[in-house]
Each structure stands twice: as structure tokens, then as C-alpha cells.
Amino acid sequence: MTVSIGVLSSAHVHTDAYADQLATREDVEFAGVVDTDPERGRETAQRHGTEYVDDVEALFERIDAGVVCSPNVDHLEWIDRAAAANVDVLCEKPLATTVENARTIVERWRAADIRIGVAMPLRFCEPARRAKETLEAGGIGTIRSISGTNRGQMPGGWFVNPDLSGGGAVMDHTVHIVDLVTHLTGENVVEVYAEVDTRFHEIPVEDVNVLSMELSDGTAFLLDGSWSKPDAWHTWGDATVELTGSDGTVAVDYTDQSVVHTPASGPDAGVNCVFHGTNTTEALIGDFVAAVREGRDPMTTPDEGLEAVAVVEAAYESAETGEPVRVDY
Amino acid sequence: MRVGIAGAGFMARTHAEEYAGMDIEVVAVASQSGPEGFVNELGLDAVAYTDVATLCDRTDIDYLDICTPTHTHLDFVRTAAEAGVDVFVEKPIAGTLEEANEIASLVEEAGLTLMVGHVVRFDQGYRAAKDLEIGSHGVARARRLSPFPDWGSDDWFADCEKSGGVFVDLGIHDLDYLRWCWGEVERVFARRRRDAHGEHGFVTLRFESGAVGYVESSWSQPDSRPFTTELEFAGNDGLVELSSADESPYQEWTDDGAVVERPVAKSAYRHELEHFVACLESGTEPEVGAADAIASLRLALAAERSAERGKPVRPEEVVV
């Protein structure tokens, strides 16, 4: 059975990666793109051989599901509209920019008969899956500490406009590893202490994001999610997590499966990395399409998306007060 | 030059092996249980003593090299000061500020030269990293991951009263190095997990400059994992990365196993000891004197206090 899917806003930099999947999958009919910025929407539709649709409701009539790639602050509104039209949703992360909005999304999800997924591709990273198997088999004993990174280059655009993004590196680069750690350990973050600042770029949002956290079982969890990688670095950033237990350590480094390419000239001159590991976007979209088709939950559900948003909100509160903050779920 | 070594454990051995390649004679070694085995094994032409005071009565030694457990440092510095002998002491300078301050006073009153063995400053990779251009400071990352140090005599590392725990003994390497590179620290926040034979902790730092940093220190790694260090300096105009795990300049595989080594003609310990000896010869102050070592100890103790209290701590709050 083919599932009909549309793109709901193409503001996010990941839109093209999702649209590529929608355009090439045999089990998907890529029905079109809607966007609050018609020119951006048209260009996206054109790049992926689908149509730009002016009338959102008209697109909703034709699709089973939509992929929300809007600026962060608009996630709730898109989900509201999709839920009203009984359309399933895969939402770009973070689920929302406030716990309040994330809670509203969870309520909508529980009240409506629709499937909502949150885009957490790291859960599909093969080395992370291996880690989960090892942890579930008790391979490293009782976990004592977790050290994670999700450094990146500064993304620019609406990501640095707090009215659209809801914040900088804390908003952008906390949730991936927090979600992965929650997924791997089955524990929640219960406390956050944050060192946050703007030190790398002249931007109106923070680019330093160093979080010291505690999990519900007492595990210490440090995360560096700063936008600290120079544009000249060999790739967009990193995503790593290292878990140390009583009987061993497991480490996952998502981008460490890459071909090194060094063009001698042109705009990409210098060392570049071409990722050759398992395509997590393909796995993420594949899971979502199957969820829509089978009427089941996708890998990451809104209640889980809410947990990561709660950590983000606690991190901002800690940065403001200078004290560790309990996470309120 | 002639040196007397206090201690006959892991660090005494490390130093003695370096002295063998330097123009330094190890003429005396003292350890409570008698260092004859140590002296013989290393082929030293040294007299064995069971107490440091008797060793320091010798008039022919140029300095005392204290390689004993942390909680014994003050006593041996006192002995050296009474004998008027210069001192090299392993890090940390002491386990408490009270003891460290007393060491500083003793050395000052006796007019002696003292250096504390913050060896990371003499690691050539870390030394090079310090001066690479990155623009203004953003985030510093330093990790030091080791199995539990079970090589101490009577398992003294496991006794926090003696070793101070993972921040005071291991984390202090990176805390001292980061202070050296990025200046003084305004506040720390730390977490750690500790049980019978494992400890792992994180310290986040806010420097007085406004820059942020963090130190991860582990005594929790499995024996199969090589000792691992990692350093990163991120600034607004560049990035510095240094990782032991990424360096394998010499590898060897046989049917019996694999070997990865990072051989250098002069180890960091050698650079450190050569610097100290050069200071004694020229009458100059070593790079890491008591004041510096005390500031780094204060930072490690602040981390320890933060981990205990669950609150951020300013180093100046730590007075004992």
C-alpha cells in the first residue's frame, strides 16, 4: 500500500533529506509541499519533482501524513492543523520550544486518532543500536556515567532568530543526545546544571551549551551541545555518547564512518567527510511510513519528545539562575 | 646532580628510570618497608633507608624527590626543609589546603626551591596545544580516563582520606592545565559517582574570562581500554583537538596480540624533571611552584565540594 505524504513547511535544513526519501521511496506518493513562504515552498517542490500546493486544506485532503519542517515555534500550529484534518505527522525536533506547547501537542495526540512521530534519527544509528543491545544484555554492568557530545557548526538562518527557533544551541543540540540516552538507558534526566553563553559568533542566541545532568537512577550525564565547530571543520559536527558502567564502557561515534575527501579547489576545498554509515534519515522515514501504513506509533512519540523539551527548558532556567534545576515532566 | 627519592612505588620507578638517562645520580632511596628490592631491580647505586629523615641527613644530595602517597607529602617536605634540601614533589601538592599552605610556608621560610609535578604541562602535545591560535576562548574540553589505580601501596588510591579521590588525584592534571592555559576559574559544578573500586566525575568550569570548560575524570575504565586522554580548545576563530585514542604512530601485531605505542625520545616526565634540575642549576623559579599547585588543588577541592553539595562552588569559598 502506498502512503501519501506531504511536506508541511520547508524551512528546516533537513527538509531536502526527508524530501529525497519521500520522492524516491516506492511505498510513498510525495503529494506536495505547502509553505508559509511560497517561493521557498515552490523551490523545494521543484527540487524533488513534486508540486507546491497553495491551499493547505487542499493538501490535507490528499495526504495520509505530513512531515513538519517549519521553524521550531510553529510546530504546535502545524500539528494542530494536521490533527484537525486527521493527518499523521512526523515532526522535526525539538517537538516544541516550551514544555507548555509540548504538553499541548501530547494532549492533541492522545485525543486525536492520529500517529505523531518526532524526528530522532540517532535512534536508528547502527552503532547506537549495537550499544542498546549491549546495554540490554547487561554488557557493561550498572551504568555510572555518560558523556555525550553534539557539537556543530553554527547553522545561521532562522536558527539564530529566537522568535522562530526558540533559542540557540541549547534548543538545537540538547535533544538528540538526551533522547538517545533516555532511549538507551530507560532513565529520565531529573536535574540539569547549565553553562550557557554566546562566545563563538555574533548572534542573538547562545552558542555555548554545556549541560551537567543527573538521570533518575543517579547516573551522572555530561553533554556538550555547543555550536563550537568552525565552518572550516571537516564535517557539520558530531554526535557521540560514551557510557561507563561497573563492568565496561560502550562508546558510539555517529560520524566516525566516513570517507575523507579533499577537493583541491572550489568552494569545498580542504578536508571533507562523506558519511558512509547506515542512512539514519532513510531509516527514520521508513519507520514513519510503516507506522502510518500500519496505524502504529512511530519510533519516537510526542510524550518522549516532551521529555527532551523539558530538559531544554530546565537548562535555560539553570543558565538564568546559576543553580541546578529539577526537571519537571 | 644527586637526588634522594622518597618512595619506591610506581612514580618513584618512573622518575628513577628517567634519571638513568639524565646526568642525575640516585644516591639514596627511602621507603617505610625498605627499598632494597626497588634499588636492586633498577640497578641503582643508592643507599636504602627506611625513613626520609635519615636520608635527608646526608649532606651530598642536591634535592629530595617526593614520590610517596599524597597524605605523606607535608611530613616529608617538613623533613626536607629542616635539612635545607630543595624539593620536587609529585602532584597533588597535598590533600588539603591546610597541608598545602603549610608546605608553602615551610619552603618559603627555609628559602628552598620547590616544584610540584604537574606533568601534563610538560607533555609536548599539551604544550603545543596551549599556544595554537583559536581566537577568543569558547569551550575547553579535557578528558582523562583510566582503570582504577590499583598499583598504589596498600591500595591508597581507594582511600579518599589519602588520595583525595578522582578530582584531587586525577582531575587535577586537567584542572591545572586548563588554569595554566585559560586562567583562573570563577565557579565549578561537579558530579561524580563513587563506589568501592570505581569513580567517575565531571566538572564544568566557568573561567573568569567568561569562557566555559569541562573536565571528565574516570577511574572506572576496564583494563582492556588503554589510558585515554582528550583535549579540545574551541574558540571564535579556531579549534584545537588532541586525542590519545586517535594517535597510533607505532603498531605491532603478532599472534600473541596487538601493541599500539606512542614512543617519544623524551617523555613528559623527562621534560618535567629536566626543567626542575635546570631551575636548580640556574637559581630560577620552576614553572609550577607552591602557589600554582595550591590554586589547582583549590579548584579540585571546589569540584569535590560541589559534587558533595550538588551546588556550584567558587574556588575562593574553599579555604581549608
From TrEMBL, chain A:
<dbReference type="Pfam" id="PF01408">
    <property type="entry name" value="GFO_IDH_MocA"/>
</dbReference>
<feature type="domain" description="Gfo/Idh/MocA-like oxidoreductase N-terminal">
    <location>
        <begin position="21"/>
        <end position="118"/>
    </location>
</feature>
<dbReference type="InterPro" id="IPR000683">
    <property type="entry name" value="Gfo/Idh/MocA-like_OxRdtase_N"/>
</dbReference>
<protein>
    <submittedName>
        <fullName>D-xylose 1-dehydrogenase (NADP(+)) 1</fullName>
        <ecNumber>1.1.1.179</ecNumber>
    </submittedName>
</protein>
<dbReference type="InterPro" id="IPR055170">
    <property type="entry name" value="GFO_IDH_MocA-like_dom"/>
</dbReference>
<dbReference type="GO" id="GO:0000166">
    <property type="term" value="F:nucleotide binding"/>
</dbReference>
<keyword id="KW-0560">Oxidoreductase</keyword>
<dbReference type="InterPro" id="IPR051450">
    <property type="entry name" value="Gfo/Idh/MocA_Oxidoreductases"/>
</dbReference>
<dbReference type="InterPro" id="IPR036291">
    <property type="entry name" value="NAD(P)-bd_dom_sf"/>
</dbReference>
<feature type="domain" description="GFO/IDH/MocA-like oxidoreductase">
    <location>
        <begin position="129"/>
        <end position="250"/>
    </location>
</feature>
<dbReference type="GO" id="GO:0047837">
    <property type="term" value="F:D-xylose 1-dehydrogenase (NADP+) activity"/>
</dbReference>
<dbReference type="Pfam" id="PF22725">
    <property type="entry name" value="GFO_IDH_MocA_C3"/>
</dbReference>
Automatic annotation (TrEMBL), chain B:
<dbReference type="InterPro" id="IPR051450">
    <property type="entry name" value="Gfo/Idh/MocA_Oxidoreductases"/>
</dbReference>
<dbReference type="GO" id="GO:0000166">
    <property type="term" value="F:nucleotide binding"/>
</dbReference>
<feature type="domain" description="Gfo/Idh/MocA-like oxidoreductase N-terminal">
    <location>
        <begin position="1"/>
        <end position="118"/>
    </location>
</feature>
<dbReference type="GO" id="GO:0047837">
    <property type="term" value="F:D-xylose 1-dehydrogenase (NADP+) activity"/>
</dbReference>
<dbReference type="InterPro" id="IPR036291">
    <property type="entry name" value="NAD(P)-bd_dom_sf"/>
</dbReference>
<feature type="domain" description="GFO/IDH/MocA-like oxidoreductase">
    <location>
        <begin position="133"/>
        <end position="240"/>
    </location>
</feature>
<dbReference type="Pfam" id="PF22725">
    <property type="entry name" value="GFO_IDH_MocA_C3"/>
</dbReference>
<protein>
    <submittedName>
        <fullName>D-xylose 1-dehydrogenase (NADP(+)) 2</fullName>
        <ecNumber>1.1.1.179</ecNumber>
    </submittedName>
</protein>
<dbReference type="InterPro" id="IPR055170">
    <property type="entry name" value="GFO_IDH_MocA-like_dom"/>
</dbReference>
<keyword id="KW-0560">Oxidoreductase</keyword>
<dbReference type="Pfam" id="PF01408">
    <property type="entry name" value="GFO_IDH_MocA"/>
</dbReference>
<dbReference type="InterPro" id="IPR000683">
    <property type="entry name" value="Gfo/Idh/MocA-like_OxRdtase_N"/>
</dbReference>
